[in-house]
Amino acid sequence: MRFMIIRRADKDTEAGVLPDEKLLAAMTAYNEEMVKAGVMLQGEGLQPTSKGARVKFTNGKPAIIDGPFTETKELIAGFSIIQVKSREEALEWLKRWPAIDGGGNVELELRQIFEAEDFGAEFTPELRAQEERMRELAAKNR
């Protein structure tokens, strides 16, 4: 089972405040622990929304909205992708998140990632093969 750990943004991440050495060391140790356990697939921090944009479609027509975005409780500051055996195991990893992040006041969200088998018969063998080819090509782009 793959899960995404979402680290919610706060006033500091949206202001572009970079982590200090102590937090960087704690996050590096946490990530290294997950890598060594064989569960971490990817993890990245995100720039503040002042450097981002949204595209909103109305009746099929796109409109670009430049950041920053004001409602920080809905924003994401970073993410990790992990692969574990169960939701409970994923939650155990979340509970190990470095307590010093955000001065001890951080909100994390856990979301399970869809797997091909979740889509049932609608995801035909042809579509599955096409998806696999896209994943292989995408992996070469890294």
UniProtKB/TrEMBL annotation:
Domain (YCII-related): give its ranges: 1-104
Q: Which domain of life is it from?
A: Bacteria
Looking up Pfam families in the UniProt record yields: YCII (PF03795)
| Family classification | Belongs to the YciI family.
State the protein's name: YciI family protein
Origin species, per record, is Corallococcus exercitus
